[in-house]
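Predict the holo structure. Ligand: copper (II) ion.
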Amino acid sequence: MAAETIIRTPEQQWTALDPPAPGWDAPMPYDKRWWMGFLFAWSGLLLAITFSWFFVGKQNVPTLKREVTPASIQQEVEAFLAKYETEPGSGIARVPPGVDAYLVGEMWNWSSGLILKAGQEYTIWYSSLDVMHNPIIADQRYTFTAIPGYAYGIRITPTTPGEYLVYCSEYCGLGHQDMATKIVVEP
Ligand SMILES: [Cu+2]
């Protein structure tokens, strides 16, 4: 005995398993096909821009990553400051070319301000001791996400001497707006 075919109008459909109303599989009208094709091509274009920008956008993305603990990165910062701080307690380090620099966030300050030399390549390690912080170099289109447990290293070669404000762009609590330091690029 053949099973009875139940046909329901859309108003009677309760689940996706209910048979759809007749005509559901009619070919798509011409104008809708045109729009589908256009949207498909458009999303393909956006996808291509997104990925190709990685190569042609000249953006200084993090290139190094390693696992750390808040305690171990704190030790690295202290050793770095002990060696290169301009004056004890100033938190400002004059970084010789070739030496790794640190920009580690903690509620609510940065480990250090950095004095760099124009035209030299540096690796700046950024990380966090507690929650997520985003060091952002103002007006330079650089923003990074500092995550506790990881240190990310960016290789940068500052070209234009000047003072660059660095602040936190990830809301991290009551003192968030006070998280600012600077990178000074000397000629
Ligand atoms: Cu922060």
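Residues 64-186 form a domain with the Immunoglobulin-like fold (CATH 2.60.40.420). The chain has a mean pLDDT of 88.
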